[in-house]
Amino acid sequence: MIRTLIFTAYLALLILIGGPLLVLYGLIFGANDTYYRVGVDAVLFIVRAVGIRTRVEGLENIPPGTCLFAANHASNIDPPVLVGAIPRRIGILAKKSLFAIPIMGTAFRMAHFIPVDRGSAESALASLDLAAKYMKEGTSYLIYPEGTRSPDGRLLPFKRGAFLLAIRAGVPVVPVACIGARRILPKKSLRIRPGEILVRFCPPVDAAAYTPERRGELARRVHDEIAAALPADQRPVDAAPEAAE
User: Fold this and answer.
1) pLDDT tens-digit map of 108-129
2) Which CATH number fits domain 53-234: 3.40.1130.10, 3.40.50.720, 3.40.50.12780, 3.20.20.100?
3) b/e per residue, 52-64, with b = 16+ CB within 10 A?
4) Which of these, 42, 71, 40, 62, lies nearest to 142 by C-alpha position?
């Protein structure tokens, strides 16, 4: 639990002290790459300090230009690890409650992070429209198509709606397999364990070849790519799960 206490205390201080400075910097100079990099590096510092190592494979699979990165989600520790592993500035579609945290919510919005209200289909579609607008302006995004953390680490069926973002923006989807995060911080656990997380980037999928009506096919294609890149204990029990809406 000592690692968890250190991690939590650091993040609290980062939000209370570093957060206002970042927001002030963003108001003066804009939420540019320096603003983004400082925030990411500050979070990665504590990730490494509590004994979490990151190994990255498949960087050559990331195409130039704007992309939609789609990853599996097994732990609260995988978002900072994935953001640190992706070699470009990205935005994230995250649950709405995170944006209610003072300072952090403001910094998230300035960085083009977008809140998603999972309980409102209309609000979720509005979030996708805003993300598509930002993507057309050059911001890549990270999504978790499962919609929630996996309770046992195995890949869950994907929500199809998130893939409308790639289709509307006309950008490639990069499937990302995150391996080992659940062993470090399982769902419903507060104990952070030291260890290694492997981030594996798979070959991109051309979303421009799909129409909105075929978003389920795109979801299944990306799901299959991630499943194939995961170890046996993280693959879905059902070899060919149906994509959920």
Assistant:
1) 888 888 988 877 777 778 888 8
2) 3.40.1130.10
3) bebebebeeebee
4) 71
